[in-house]
Amino acid sequence: MNIRNTFKKWAAYQQTVRELAALDNRQLNDLGISRTDINRVARDHVSSL
Q1: What does the DSSP 8-state code read for residue 35?
Q2: Closest CA to 41 of 22, 19, 16
Q3: 2-40 confidence digits (pLDDT tens)
Q4: CB contact at 8 A, 45 and 13
Q5: Minimal CA–CA distance to 5: which of 38, 46, 37?
């Protein structure tokens, strides 16, 4: 894995965490995740890139 790809994945992880953290608990619940799941969901998202 090169540095460019690593940075791209890190940036995608950070953006996903930021966007999910901005949602309120009801919105997160509507998506089927809890606040404690945010980091896992972001990691899962990045691993699919």
Answers
A1: G
A2: 16
A3: 999 999 999 999 999 999 999 999 999 999 999 999 999
A4: yes
A5: 46
Whether the Cβ atoms of residue 17 and residue 42 lie closer than 8 Å to each other = yes
pLDDT at 1 over 80: no
pTM of the predicted model as reported, rounded to 2 decimal places: 0.89
- Residue pointed to by tokens 């090169």: 2
Question: Strand, coil or helix: what is 48?
Answer: coil
> What tokens appear for 3 in the block?
């540095």
What span, in angstroms and rounded, lies between the C-alpha atoms of 35 and 24?
9
Asked whether 43 and 12 are in contact (CB, 8 A), the reply is no
**Nearest CA-CA partner of 48 in 16, 22, 3:** 16
Question: Two tokens at 49?
Answer: 């890139």
